[in-house]
């Protein structure tokens, strides 16, 4: 008996089955249908101006991964307003897609086989339906002429009349008329014939965040300037209560701690009644609930407008605001979120209830890699060499600066560093090379060493192992005395030579005279010869 009960229960949940369980029609089950994956759900907003009034449309899109062997008929889709109440979102009014052609809320699309007849298709659906047929719960296309044996697509449509619309299996996007500052819920259920997915991973519910930026949406959809879009939003009585023009202005590396700090600026909301300040958060991109513990933002402070900001007539802004985000990592992506903080009364009126509320705006940015040795950062002293790689060769912000040859110091160019000073080698052992009274002269960097200079009145190279320094007077005396002696010797020699020449001349003259006299005597006859 127990075994029969187990078999009965298994058969009750098998596919397909016509059994009743405890007297109640069971939920239809289709194993392949439960393996359908709905992925990449996204939405965007477009706005346009009609008769001086702004119209907003919301485009919702998705992708479906369908297992092999299953051919879907379509999707049940619901887009409805979400109302924030008691810390929860509650479903409210249901939106109908633009240009939706089925007239009845209990109709849905089915793709018939080649030999199956299709009920009459509404004229408005001829171009959009293709080979699909609009059916109701009693259609023969679902049950081949039989009755419903389990709760499926018809049950869903009857349970929540008007909540869901049916779209064909090829549909991947829908468009709706939307309202600013309104969040929406999105539910999509794939189905095949009367089977509707009952798997939570397939029956997808997704929140479509509101369009809170009237100015930005209008500018993205038209050629309006900032001030023109602002004035148009004001004229359409659309509140602008979120911070505007979030901009990353300045990047300031913290070289000592291997982090980067950035300055972010923004304009306050156009609606400033009751505005008391801002909350600022920074977190890694796409991790919106994971606020980075090491990173933090300073309190927002007012700063002057840049002078180039053109304001609309309804914009009473007189100042911008800025904050500094500390301890960020180069090369990483971050999201900075700025939330307008209004008084309690205004917060309740605007519905500023947190991260995705109409009072919050965010900016996603990626920090570029920073090489601290780039001249742009002026990290090291002009007379120093920058080293920005760790032992593994990876560039790091924690760079070091080493003074070049002939200089000494910390090497940084910051005010709290002594930079690089020329080494005075005369204050080191190098000065021992100079002999007294020579003076030590330091060689200008990048040269290393000293020169020895003799003082005035001295001559020489000044080196102990050289000529040293000699007194100019002693040198003159040493030169003058030998020179005087030489001159005296030369005078004496010249005198002796001159004297000898004079004596030689006299002796020569005397010899010549004597010779002449002797000749005369020899030519004159003596007395005896005369006789």
TrEMBL record:
Query: Is the keyword Phosphoprotein in the record?
Result: no
Q: Where is the composition biased (Polar residues)?
A: 513-525
Which SUPFAM superfamilies does this one have? Fibronectin type III
Q: Superkingdom, according to UniProt?
A: Eukaryota
Q: Domain named EGF-like: which ranges?
A: 369-410
UniProt entry tagged with the keyword Signal: yes
| Protein name from the UniProt record | Uncharacterized LOC100183125
The ranges of region (Disordered) come to 512-531
**Originating species:** Ciona intestinalis
Residues spanning the membrane: 479-497
Q: Enumerate the InterPro entries for this protein.
A: EGF (IPR000742), FN3_dom (IPR003961), FN3_sf (IPR036116), Ig-like_fold (IPR013783)
Q: Which residues form the signal peptide?
A: 1-19
Keywords of the record, alphabetical order, are:
EGF-like domain, Membrane, Repeat, Signal, Transmembrane, Transmembrane helix
């Amino acid at each position: 008996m127990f075994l029969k009960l187990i078999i009965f229960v298994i058969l009750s949940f098998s596919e397909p089955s016509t059994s009743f369980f405890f007297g109640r029609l069971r939920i239809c089950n289709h194993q392949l249908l439960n393996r359908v994956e709905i992925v990449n759900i996204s939405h965007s907003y477009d706005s346009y101006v009609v008769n001086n009034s702004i119209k907003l449309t919301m485009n919702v899109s998705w992708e479906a991964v369908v297992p092999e062997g299953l051919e879907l008929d379509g999707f049940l889709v619901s887009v409805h307003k979400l109302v924030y109440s008691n810390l929860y979102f509650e479903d409210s009014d249901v939106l109908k897609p633009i240009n939706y052609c089925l007239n009845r809320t209990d109709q849905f699309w089915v793709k018939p086989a080649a030999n199956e007849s299709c009920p009459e298709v509404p004229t408005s659906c001829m171009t959009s339906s293709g080979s699909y047929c609009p059916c109701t719960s009693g259609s023969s296309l679902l049950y081949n002429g039989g009755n419903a044996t389990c709760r499926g697509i018809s049950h869903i449509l009857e349970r929540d009349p008007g909540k869901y619309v049916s779209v064909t299996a090829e549909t991947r996007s829908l468009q709706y008329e939307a309202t600013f500052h309104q969040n929406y819920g999105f539910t999509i259920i794939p189905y095949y014939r009367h089977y509707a997915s009952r798997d939570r991973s397939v029956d997808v519910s997704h929140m479509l965040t509101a369009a809170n930026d009237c100015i930005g949406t209008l500018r993205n959809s038209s050629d309006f300037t900032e001030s023109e879009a602002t004035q148009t939003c004001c004229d359409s009585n659309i509140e602008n209560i979120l911070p505007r023009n979030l901009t990353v202005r300045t990047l300031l590396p913290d070289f000592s701690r291997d982090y980067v700090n950035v300055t972010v600026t923004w304009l306050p909301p156009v609606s400033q009644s009751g505005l008391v300040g801002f909350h600022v958060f920074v977190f890694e991109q796409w991790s919106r609930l994971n606020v980075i513990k090491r990173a933090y933002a300073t309190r927002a402070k007012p700063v002057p407008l840049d002078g180039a900001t053109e304001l609309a007539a309804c914009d009473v802004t007189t100042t911008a605001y800025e904050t500094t985000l500390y301890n960020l990592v180069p090369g990483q992506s971050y999201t900075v979120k700025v939330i307008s903080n209004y008084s309690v009364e205004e917060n309740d009126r605007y519905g500023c209830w947190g991260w995705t509320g109409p009072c919050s705006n965010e900016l996603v940015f990626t920090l570029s890699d920073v090489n601290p040795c780039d001249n742009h950062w002026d990290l090291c002293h002009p007379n120093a060499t920058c080293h920005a790689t760790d032992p593994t060769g990876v560039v790091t912000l924690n760079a070091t600066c080493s003074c070049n040859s002939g200089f000494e110091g910390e090497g940084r160019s910051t005010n709290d560093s002594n930079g690089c000073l020329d080494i005075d080698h005369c204050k080191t052992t190098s000065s021992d090379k100079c002999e007294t009274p020579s003076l030590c002269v330091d060689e200008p960097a990048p040269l290393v060493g000293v020169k020895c200079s003799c003082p005035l009145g001295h001559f020489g190279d000044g080196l102990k192992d050289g000529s040293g320094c000699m007194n100019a007077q002693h040198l003159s005396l040493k030169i003058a005395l030998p020179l005087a002696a030489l001159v005296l010797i030369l005078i004496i020699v010249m005198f002796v030579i001159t004297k000898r020449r004079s004596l030689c001349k006299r002796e020569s003259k005397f010899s010549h005279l004597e010779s002449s006299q002797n000749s005369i005597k020899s030519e004159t006859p003596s007395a005896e010869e005369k006789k």
